Amino acid sequence: MSTPGHDQVLAACKEGALLPGRDDGALLEQAIALSRHCPPSRTAYSVGAVLVAADGSVLSTGYSRQDGSPVHAEEAALRALPPGAELRTATLYCSLEPCSERASAPRPCAELIVSAGVGRVVVGWREPELFVARCRGLEQLRDAGVAVEELPAYADLARRSNGHLPLGRPATGPPGEGGPA
Ligand SMILES: [Zn+2]
After folding, report:
1. Which terminus has fewer CB within 10 Å in the chain: N or C?
2. Cα-Cα-Cα-Cα dihedral of 158, 33, 150, 160, to 10°?
3. What is the pLDDT along the chain (181 residues), one digit of tens a residue?
4. In the chain, what are the domain boundaries?
């Protein structure tokens, strides 16, 4: 499956030139670049995800609402996986913390990632308290034995793809209207 941005990610990663663990920042930037393709939604974040094998090959990519449905980035990337992909040693790069609660689908992304058996997740931006009082995505991943890394230096960049949301309020303020999307 090819969506806008997928080929650019492949080109930027040059199959194996960027390695998970060594080039986490550059790979996370590719996930953030994908988040710029998301059709904006007043009730959901714009998120990008890139799943990379241990040898640096890009297994799949995804971004929010890429097919017009309420699909989440991580979910889209997991759906697009080639059959038999080795996920234990793979890393999923997510511009935003994977969701732990969700209204538009029965299973939140943290659960989908654990079920798929992804070994490692790198996240740029912690989910703010806008739709959900407290996202526990990172916690759920860690509890399930997934290696989780946050790169807060990329939080601002990931947030910039979400100018359509009222994110001005402090993270500790009251939850916004609407529900988790
Ligand atoms: Zn999600």
Report:
1. N
2. -10
3. 578 999 999 999 998 899 999 999 999 999 999 999 999 999 999 999 999 999 999 999 999 999 999 999 999 999 999 999 999 999 999 999 999 999 888 899 999 999 999 999 999 999 998 888 889 999 999 999 999 999 999 999 999 999 999 987 544 444 444 445 5
4. 6-140+155-160
Cα 64 to averaged position of ligand 1 atoms, centre (Å): 9
- At the second CATH level, the architecture of 6-140+155-160 is 3-Layer(aba) Sandwich (3.40)
The one catalytic residue among 29, 74, 97, 127: 74
With beta carbons less than 8 A apart as the criterion, state whether 73 and 94 touch: yes
d(CA 68, CA 18): 30
* Locus of tokens 């939140």: 108
74 classed as catalytic: yes
